[in-house]
C-alpha cells in the first residue's frame, strides 16, 4: 500500500478591488490648467531661479559682496535660462518700433537680472518723442516696455531747418519741406521755447486761430502773425492777447482780412496802423460793437513803417 500523502488544496482568498486613490485639490487644479505638466514644471523652475537669483544679488549687496561676484551670479542665472529673448513694446503711435528697441537695449547684457531697468528708462526719456516710459521684467525671458508719446503741436523753422515740436517746445524730429504736416508754423530763434505761450495767445481769439498759418518770434520779445489770406499782424510786446482780441472784434465788424491789406500794426495800443501795397491810405473804422451815437474813438489806419 503506497504511502501517498494527500494534502488539502488551500482555499483561495477572495480578490479585493481597491478604489483608486482620490486626487488632491492641488492635483485637480494642475490637471485643469491649459498647459502640460512639463511646461508647468519648467515655469516653476524658472521662477525659483529668478527669485533665488534676485535674493542672492540682494544679499550680496547687503553684506558688501563685491559687484563682480553679483555680476557673476547674474550671468550664471542667464546660463540657466534667464536671458532676454524678447521685448514687448506698447504705447507706440507714431514712433518706429525698431528705434525704441535699439534705444532701450543699447549696450545692455543678455542676462535678464543684469538688465538695468533704471538706465533703460532714462535712455528712453532722453529720446525726443518719449514723454514717459515704464520698464519691467517678465520672467523668465521678456522685457516689458510701455511708452507715452509726445503730441506734435507745431513746426519750428529756424536757420532754414524745419523741426516738429510738441506743445512745450521739445524737438521731436526733422520735417521734410515737401511733406509739411497741417500744423502751425513758428519762425525764428527761441520760437520753440515760446510754443506754450503762443498756444495761449491763439486761445484768446478762437475765431482767428484757424486763420493763423505762421507766427514769427521777433527780437525774442513779440509775435508777428501771418494769416491764410496773406496779411501780417504785428502784436505788441505787452498785452499781445488783448490786442489780438481787439483785432478779432474789428475783423468781425468790418472784415479786415482778405480785403487787400498787406500788413497791420498794433504795437501802439492807441491805434491800428495798416498798409496796402504801393499806396498811402488813411481810414477810420469804428470799433466792433459801437452803435450810433457811441463816443468810442475810431480805429485809425495809416501807412506802416517797417519793423
Automatic annotation (TrEMBL):
<keyword id="KW-0131">Cell cycle</keyword>
<feature type="domain" description="POTRA">
    <location>
        <begin position="82"/>
        <end position="150"/>
    </location>
</feature>
<feature type="compositionally biased region" description="Low complexity">
    <location>
        <begin position="1"/>
        <end position="13"/>
    </location>
</feature>
<comment type="function">
    <text>Essential cell division protein.</text>
</comment>
<feature type="region of interest" description="Disordered">
    <location>
        <begin position="275"/>
        <end position="296"/>
    </location>
</feature>
<keyword id="KW-0812">Transmembrane</keyword>
<feature type="region of interest" description="Disordered">
    <location>
        <begin position="1"/>
        <end position="23"/>
    </location>
</feature>
<dbReference type="GO" id="GO:0032153">
    <property type="term" value="C:cell division site"/>
</dbReference>
<dbReference type="InterPro" id="IPR034746">
    <property type="entry name" value="POTRA"/>
</dbReference>
<dbReference type="GO" id="GO:0005886">
    <property type="term" value="C:plasma membrane"/>
</dbReference>
<keyword id="KW-1133">Transmembrane helix</keyword>
<dbReference type="Pfam" id="PF08478">
    <property type="entry name" value="POTRA_1"/>
</dbReference>
<keyword id="KW-1003">Cell membrane</keyword>
<dbReference type="GO" id="GO:0043093">
    <property type="term" value="P:FtsZ-dependent cytokinesis"/>
</dbReference>
<keyword id="KW-0132">Cell division</keyword>
<dbReference type="Pfam" id="PF03799">
    <property type="entry name" value="FtsQ_DivIB_C"/>
</dbReference>
<dbReference type="InterPro" id="IPR005548">
    <property type="entry name" value="Cell_div_FtsQ/DivIB_C"/>
</dbReference>
<dbReference type="GO" id="GO:0090529">
    <property type="term" value="P:cell septum assembly"/>
</dbReference>
<dbReference type="InterPro" id="IPR045335">
    <property type="entry name" value="FtsQ_C_sf"/>
</dbReference>
<dbReference type="InterPro" id="IPR026579">
    <property type="entry name" value="FtsQ"/>
</dbReference>
<keyword id="KW-0472">Membrane</keyword>
<protein>
    <recommendedName>
        <fullName>Cell division protein FtsQ</fullName>
    </recommendedName>
</protein>
<dbReference type="InterPro" id="IPR013685">
    <property type="entry name" value="POTRA_FtsQ_type"/>
</dbReference>
<keyword id="KW-0997">Cell inner membrane</keyword>
<comment type="similarity">
    <text>Belongs to the FtsQ/DivIB family. FtsQ subfamily.</text>
</comment>
Amino acid at each position: 500500500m503506497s504511502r501517498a500523502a494527500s494534502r488539502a488544496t488551500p482555499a483561495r482568498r477572495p480578490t479585493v478591488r481597491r478604489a483608486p486613490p482620490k486626487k488632491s485639490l492641488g492635483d485637480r487644479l494642475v490637471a485643469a490648467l491649459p498647459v502640460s505638466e512639463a511646461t508647468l514644471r519648467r515655469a516653476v523652475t524658472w521662477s525659483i531661479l529668478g527669485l533665488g537669483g534676485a535674493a542672492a544679488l540682494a544679499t550680496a549687496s547687503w553684506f558688501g559682496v563685491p559687484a563682480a561676484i553679483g555680476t557673476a551670479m547674474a550671468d550664471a542665472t542667464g546660463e540657466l535660462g534667464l536671458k532676454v529673448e524678447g521685448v514687448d513694446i506698447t504705447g507706440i503711435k507714431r514712433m518706429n518700433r525698431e528705434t525704441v528697441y535699439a534705444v532701450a537695449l543699447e549696450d545692455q547684457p543678455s542676462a535678464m537680472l543684469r538688465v538695468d531697468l533704471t538706465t533703460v528708462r532714462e535712455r528712453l526719456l532722453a529720446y525726443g518723442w518719449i514723454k514717459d516710459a515704464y520698464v519691467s521684467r517678465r520672467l523668465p525671458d521678456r522685457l516689458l516696455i510701455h511708452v507715452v508719446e509726445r503730441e506734435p503741436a507745431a513746426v519750428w523753422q529756424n536757420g532754414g531747418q524745419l523741426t516738429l515740436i510738441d506743445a512745450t517746445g521739445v524737438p521731436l524730429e526733422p520735417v521734410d519741406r515737401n511733406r509739411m504736416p497741417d500744423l502751425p508754423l513758428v519762425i525764428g530763434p527761441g520760437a520753440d521755447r515760446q510754443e506754450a505761450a503762443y498756444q495761449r495767445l491763439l486761445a484768446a481769439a478762437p475765431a482767428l486761430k484757424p486763420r493763423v498759418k505762421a507766427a514769427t518770434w521777433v527780437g525774442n520779445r513779440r509775435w508777428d502773425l501771418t494769416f491764410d489770406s496773406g496779411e501780417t499782424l504785428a502784436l505788441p510786446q505787452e498785452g499781445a492777447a488783448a490786442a489780438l482780441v481787439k483785432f478779432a472784434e474789428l475783423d468781425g465788424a468790418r472784415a479786415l482780412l482778405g480785403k487787400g491789406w498787406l500788413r497791420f500794426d498794433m504795437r501802439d495800443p492807441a491805434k491800428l496802423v495798416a498798409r496796402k501795397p504801393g499806396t498811402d491810405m488813411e481810414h477810420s473804422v469804428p470799433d466792433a460793437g459801437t452803435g450810433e451815437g457811441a463816443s468810442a474813438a475810431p480805429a485809425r489806419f495809416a501807412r506802416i513803417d517797417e519793423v
